[in-house]
Amino acid sequence: MKQTIKKWIPFIVLITIVIVTAIYMFLSTLKSTYIPVTDKPGQIYREACSGCHGVQGEGKGLFPALADESIKTLHIEDIVKNGALMMPAFKHLRGDTLSRLADYVSRHKFRE
Ligand code: HEC
Fold first, then answer.
1. CA of 105, closest atom in ligand 1
2. HEC profile for 16-70?
3. Residues 8-36, mean pLDDT to the nearest whole number
4. Residue spans per domain, the chain
C-alpha cells in the first residue's frame, strides 16, 4: 500500500503546481467591465469599489481596508488601472476621473 502512494507523489505534486498556476493566471487577467457614467468620485467608489473594500473603505474579509494613511494617490491610480492578484483592472477608469477617484480614496472621504 505504502509503495503505491509513493509512486503517485510526483504526479500529485505536478497536478498541484498546474492547478495553482492556472488559478494565478486566471486571477491576474481579471478585468472589470465597469464603465463610469459620472465623474463624481464618491459615486464611482460606491458603484465600483465598495463591494469589495466596504462603503467606508473598511475592507471585507480578504479585501483590504483603504483607510490606511500610507496609501498614496499614485499607487491607487496604478492598482485601479492595472489590478492586482485578486483585484480586477479597471480599464475604463482613466484621466481626470481616475485622478479624482484616487484623490478621493487617499483622503478617505468615503461619505461625500
Ligand atoms: C473584486 C474585488 C475588488 C474590487 C471591485 C476593487 N478592489 Fe481594490 N483590491 C482588491 C484586493 C483583493 C486587493 C489586494 C491586492 C491583491 O489582490 O492582492 C485590492 C487592493 C487595492 C488597493 C491597494 C491597497 C493597499 O493596501 O496597497 C487599492 C488602493 C484599491 N484596491 C483600490 C480600489 C479602488 C479605488 C476600487 C474601485 C475602482 C477597487 N479597489 C475595487 C479587491 C477589489
1. 35
2. HHHHHHHHHHHHHCCEECCCCCCCCHHHHHHHHHHHHHCCCCCCECCECCCCCCC
3. 92
4. 2-107
For ligand 1, the distance from its centroid to the CA atom of residue 97, given in whole angstroms, is 17
Q: Are 87 and 64 in contact (CB under 8 A)?
A: no
Cβ of 63 closer than 6 Å to ligand 1, yes or no, is: yes
Q: Which CATH number is 2-107's, of 3.40.50.300, 3.40.50.2300, 1.10.760.10, 2.40.50.140? A: 1.10.760.10
As a residue count, the chain comes to: 112
Q: With a threshold of 0.85, does the pTM exceed it? A: no
Burial 89-108 (b: 16+ CB within 10 A, else e): bbeebeeebbbbbbebbbee
Asked if pLDDT for residue 112 goes beyond 70, the answer is: no
- Residue 71 has phi, psi (to 5 degrees) of -75, 120
Q: What is the pLDDT of residue 15?
A: 96
